[in-house]
Amino acid sequence: METTIVDLRYKTKEILKALERNERVKILYHGKVKGIIMSAKTLPLKSVKEHKFFGMSKNREEPVSEVMEDLRGPRY
């Protein structure tokens, strides 16, 4: 299904029905695709342990605050 920004506002019910049918909804802006909305049912569920940051610092001995400071980097 293709829809415009205006349709998102005025035809929300039809868009939600399309998502229930597991259709992808392409969002058009001035005739060009700006994004795609997919049904949440089609996304695979992952466990927290599969996230790339899970357990990344279990072998570190420095405090969490220092690790976070390193990840954030310097501020302006």
Largest pleated sheet = 3 strands, mixed
Q: Give the total of beta strands.
A: 3
Give the CA-CA distance, first to last residue.
45 Å
> How helix-rich are the residues, as a percent range?
25-40%
- Gyration radius over CA: 21 Å
The average pLDDT score comes to: 85
Can you count the helices?
A: 3
Task: Give the percentage of residues in beta strands.
Answer: 15-25%
Order of SSEs: EHHEEH
Molecular shape: elongated
Detailed description of the structure:
- The chain is of the alpha+beta class and 76 residues long.
- The protein has a domain of 40 residues.
- 32% of the residues lie in helices and 18% in strands.
- The protein is built from three helices and three strands.
- Strands 1-2-3 form a three-stranded mixed β-sheet.
- The protein is elongated.
- The model has no long low-confidence stretch (mean pLDDT 85).
Topology readout:
Layout: E1 2-4, H1 5-10, H2 12-20, E2 25-29, E3 32-37, H3 64-72
Parallel strand pairs: 1-2
Antiparallel strand pairs: 2-3
